[in-house]
Amino acid sequence: MEFHDQNSFAILVVEDEPLLLMDAVDMIEDAGFRTYQARSAGTALALMERHDDIRVLFTDIDMPGSMNGIDLAARVRDQWPPTVILVTSGIVGLTKDTLPDGARFFPKPYSANHIIGTLARIAADLGRG
Amino acid sequence: MACPGEARDALSDPEAAVAILAPRGRDSEVARQVLENAGIAAVVASSLHQVAELVEARVGAVLITEEALNGPGSEALHQALAAQPAWSDLPFVVLANGANSRSDAATRRMDDLGNAILLSRPLHTEELVRSLRSALKARRRQHEARKRLEELQLREVQLFESEAKFQAIANSVDQMIWSTRPDGYHDYYNDRWYAFTGVPAGSTDGVAWNGMFHPQDQEMAWQRWRHSLETGEPYEIEYRLRHRSGTYRWVLGRAQPLRDKNGTILRWYGTCTDIHEIKIAEEQRQLMLGEMNHRVKNTLAMVNVMVSQTLRHADSLTEARAAIQSRIGMMADAHDRLINATWSETRITEAVEAALAPHRSEEGHFTITGPDLPIGSKQALALTMALHELATNASKYGALSVFKGKVRIEWSIEKRQGQELFHFEWHESGGPPVEAPTRRGFGSRMIEQALGGYFGGEAELVYDSAGLRFSLMAPLEGLTL
Fold first, then answer.
1. How many CB pairs under 8 A join A and B?
2. CB B251 within 8 A of CB B273
3. ipTM, 2 dp
4. Could you tell me the pTM of the whole model?
5. Has residue A88 been placed in a domain?
6. Total domains present in chain A
7. What angle is formed at CA B15 by the lines to CA B13 and CA B21, rounded to 5 degrees?
8. A contacts of B451 (beta carbons < 8 Å)
């Protein structure tokens, strides 16, 4: 399998629970990717504005504050259309309709291999594009 | 001459019989014979006293000679007549004494009888029979009228009792009861309705009831009620009804139509039952189930992180297994303490105790001081985890690994620039000299990178050679974020 340079782009990880955020970041960085991290949608949007190397948004849905992960995903889809959006949540009964087009959903708890495999494919697609 | 007492007893039907008092000669006997021949039962009295007795026995009519009215017992007769019930007007047929002029006393005696017909003598048989027949007939009419009247009175009493019974039932039950015309116009509410709502009687007649509902429930209630009126289907709804206190309480409303033989709706009868407590308990149960589900998921997520982090930093599977078991044990203990406290909040001493309990075997190591502040469940679990990591580390390498080692745990509320801050400290002393680790394990990373986030503050580890120090500084409200 041919890998695109995994360091040429970054993944924005959004999770309000500090330990889960730490673990998600560890998981992704252990696989050789660069990350930015945010604990709220507001911080996430500020990071999107500031860093144009973010190609992937990996966000939780259930977050405190005025904006949850679904709202965040929709805003990112509108403002930065090429961004690949990965959404995760422990909420039961969530349907694809509530997510922006093209967003992928991973129910919590997710498998690390599944997430890393997906990121590797995204890296490969970005390399070809 | 027959004894009147016996004669009276012999009369099977006194109301259809004539009492005769004609003391002179055989007049009484002749009259009785004449009447009997005409098919009219008659009984002969010997005095006004006996006539009075027969009046009391409800004889149908009296045939009496004018001169007999002047005899002894006139007072007894007068009393017997006065004692008649209102409906009774006993007819007398009086045989006149033939005098051209009558004394005032004689006239008064005649008037006292009330209903008297005067027949002149000599007696004419047909005249006598016809007079008494019509007297008895009039008397029978009186009895019939009385019977009708008594029936009506009985019905009225029954109606009154039935109404009283209905009111007693309708107003003693715990439910509100109402009733409407077939078109849905409310025209009855029991006392409970007025006691509950506190509105004046009659003020919710017609369609005004809808205004007593919570504004958010009014439209739905209208729709359901209209649907029931159109289809005749039973009405059932849960809504909030304004209580006299001004608050709204949950109520179960139900109504059924009463139909005639052809199925046409005559009236609607409805009830409202106060289900506020049940409803609130149910809401609380749902809330609690939701919270429990959330907690279990959260705990599993934490276990997931903890296992993955332990494996990430472990040198061997044996080491990893011991660390995972110890950490899960700590989480179970913390969970017990969180459950035993209220659902949303526990006390900080519980969180501290949960972490230190497994390390308490060496008494005298710990000094713990601080106010027993409320702390949110997430913060409590995070603090417990951090303290567990510190205590485990201290048991292996720090103050808890030697006999004279000490750990001072202290927390307080500090005021800085008008803001209240929560300050927590862990301070080891008397242990082996401390060196900063070359590699960060789960414990130190958890404290340095994650712990502060749970409190909206900052956590710090200081590897002072005299003893490890940990401090957490956060806004006071961060304890229960």
1. 43
2. yes
3. 0.86
4. 0.63
5. yes
6. 1
7. 100
8. 18
